[in-house]
Design a protein that fits this description.
Blueprint (H helix, E strand, L loop, with lengths): L1 E9 L2 H34 L11 H12 L12 H19 L16 E3 L6 E3 L2 E4 L3 E5 L10 E7 L4 E8 L12 E6 L3 E5 L4 E3 L5 H19 L5 H33 L5 E4 L4 H4 L6 H7 L1 H15 L2 E4 L26 E3 L6 E3 H10 L2
Parallel strand pairs: 8-11, 11-12
Antiparallel strand pairs: 1-5, 1-7, 2-6, 3-4, 4-5, 6-7, 8-9, 9-10, 13-14
Amino acid sequence: MILSKKIRCLPTPEQLIKFKKSAGTSRFIYNLMLSENKKSYNEYLKSDIKEKSPFISGYDFGKHVTQLKKTSKYSWLSEVGGKVAKQACLDCNNAFKKFFKKLSGFPKFKKKGVRDSFYVNYETFKRTPEGFKGERLGNVRTAESLPKADNYYNPRIIYDGKYWYITFGIDVSEKVNENNNGKTLGIDLGIKTFVTVSDGTAIPNINKSKKPKLVYRKIKHFQRKLNRCKKGSNNRIKVVKKLQLLHRTLRCIRSNHIHQATTMLVKTKPAKIVIECLNVLGMLKNRKLSRAISEAGFHEFARQLEYKCRLWGIEFLKADRFFPSSKLCSKCGCKKDKLKLSERTYHCEHCGNIMDRDLNAAINLSYL
């Protein structure tokens, strides 16, 4: 399987300028292709001839970019690696493909300073003792050495608002889980308790702890301050930068919590892990719980757990979305037709079983 890696870069001041130029070029080409496709689509709607596709492919727009580089107006496009602009065309093309397949919304224009990134030519990408070597970038130092691999897939340099990182994929062999304990873990996700495991383990919701609440309180403070700042002023730029760093801190806290939770579950070496399949988009329609659900990161938890199970040789199963794990009694198997969300303790009318609602659901999932 291909495992992605993310390592912090330590660029020199000269390399930092090259990073910003490359990210700016990638963003400019992406937005230019998106703008041209919008114009082409509007003309297609007005015309009577509907034979040709209204959208320009990434390959064709790449030829157009090559001609732009030869003009004096856009000669600055040649200051960065040759693959940076071409890959931006392909990225925009893939965004349109996802839109047509109804996997995502209509592509949006990229904004400066928001998740800036650019592609590094994999043909010239090489690992060095201190970091890596990239096209037009020279030898870039990293905080830790890159893992040894035959191929580095899709290397990109991204900016998260504070630091620059190199991301890439490497081939990793899947482990055979021969020393498993033979048990099946059922996992129930929730808001009050983030993860409830069938063996009784409970992982708390990180969003209810002290540190995220403090960060969120600061975000609200600076958001009010931003509303009072004049547009285009230096003070507004400073507040926006502060807000970006605070959002980054909050994002890192949540991501780290999910990584620690999934790694802890996998290291128990079960034979199988069963997780419930949640309709998160449907759950977000509940206005009272929408914020708590969106902050929990249920989809990210399931994604990380799935690839870590593959890596450790553990069987991973997603239960059917309509499996009534919360309504079934884990002892006698009787179904309770009416169960309100406010009922946090499960009471079985047939066998008299009294148990925590989430633990009861997790045990039912472990039976699958």
